[in-house]
Amino acid sequence: MTWALVLVLLVGGWVVLNQLCGRKYNQFRSITMAGLKLQQISAPSLFLLDKLRVYNRLPVLFFKIQRSIQKNYGVQHRSAEMTILFMAEILSYSWLLVTLGCLLSLLMNGEITGFGIGVLLAVLVPFSMIQDLQKKVQLRDQEILLELPELLNKIILLVGAGETVQQAITHCARQKQSEDNHPLYREILKMIHEWESGYSFQQSFDALSKRCGIQEVSIFTTTVLLNYRRGGNDFVLALRDLSRVLWERRKAISRTRGEQASSKLVFPMVLIFLVVLLLVGSPAFMMMKI
């Protein structure tokens, strides 16, 4: 009876809050954010986050999630709202898992094991969602760093052939226009659109550096802005020095990825070894017993 009452309170409270607060937080439903499954029923979670002022009580966590969202989705002006929406998604999953835990305990004739499983998952799933967001950002940064040296080499060749910096960057971006899902070329295409819309070259490059949020990209933009007016050999030499540094960085990332891939193969290899050992050793052990 106790678990049935708790289940009714959880479900009923969610329904009531969703009806009362749905209009107040209606603007969050129009935000497009990939990966969210419970966005349309997140009003109760948004209400709780607002009342508890989680973003003021946990500013470090809020800033980390906001920074990851800015990098992963390439947005600046609505990043705070998207961060709140992501935290509401986490709270919604926790609420749902606790509710399922109560239902499981009810089906298990009142045993607390089901509720314990629900609470455990309600703690682990949000942690896993935050880790997954940070992992996506890490992969995005690695993809940018892997592609940046190749882009730099193309710019060096085109500038050396007589094109301006803007023409060289535009030419490289247009060639990769089919790869608009690549984070580096997606940001460069935004930069080109900005300076074609009236932004200065310096403003567009500064915005590119902020959107990428990577030290190597900041060095690249600073080098270009300091040397592109000079042109000629000075500009090409500066980019070549930077290119050597970026290629070393790319080699380091490739080695790290190779080591990670090798470590992932250890467990399957051990498992296969144990299976082979069992298949080979079982007949011998049975013959010894006979």
UniProtKB/TrEMBL annotation:
**Name of the protein in question:** Tight adherence protein C
Matching InterPro entries: T2SS_GspF_dom
- List all membrane-crossing ranges: 84-106, 112-130, 265-286
Subcellular location per UniProt equals:
Cell membrane
The membrane topology term of the UniProt record is: Multi-pass membrane protein
Q: Where is the Type II secretion system protein GspF domain?
A: 152-283
UniProt keyword annotation of Endoplasmic reticulum present: no
- Superkingdom is Bacteria
Alphabetic keyword roster: Cell membrane, Membrane, Transmembrane, Transmembrane helix
